[in-house]
Amino acid sequence: MSEVTISEAEYLRLKAKAGELKAPNPTQCRESGHVWKFVGGANAGCCEDCACSASVNQCIVCGACDYGENEETSDIIANCADREEMEYQRSVEAQEPHP
Ligand SMILES: [Zn+2]
Ligand SMILES: [Zn+2]
């Protein structure tokens, strides 16, 4: 038997996937003045091969979680260096096909 350690953020994501968390509403939370805390990092999901990390935040009042879906993550995805490089590689290969 091996023990698997996952982060709190990953735990919350899995719980949500299993339907054990009710759908959160981060926007409403923030408008109500709830305090959010940083619970960990998750894959930003910009592309398959990069290791960009998005910060996941959870509401300490009602337990809602943004799963890294926030403005900061949008910026990270928009500025992903790995993705730019891969897109560049792809365009170079498209222009100069190997003989
Ligand atoms: Zn809340
Ligand atoms: Zn990335």
Summarize the structure.
This protein has 99 residues and is an alpha+beta fold. The chain is built from four helices and two strands. It has one domain.
Structural description of this entry:
The chain has 99 residues and is of the alpha+beta class. It has one domain (8-95). 39% of the residues lie in helices and 15% in strands. It has 4 helices and 2 strands, in the order ααββαα. It has helices spanning 8-17, 26-31, 71-78, 81-95; strands at 36-43, 53-59. The protein has a two-stranded antiparallel ribbon. The protein is elongated, with a radius of gyration of 18 Å. It binds zinc ion (2 copies).
Write the layout of secondary structure elements.
Layout: H1 8-17, H2 26-31, E1 36-43, E2 53-59, H3 71-78, H4 81-95
Antiparallel strand pairs: 1-2
The structure holds zinc ion (ZN) (2 copies).
Q: What separation lies between the terminal Cα atoms?
A: 51 Å
Total count of strands:
2
Globally, the shape reads elongated
| Structural class estimated from helices and strands | alpha+beta
Q: How is the largest sheet built, in terms of strand order?
A: 1-2
Alpha plus pi helix count: 4
Comma- or semicolon-separated keywords:
binds zinc ion; 99 residues; 15% strand
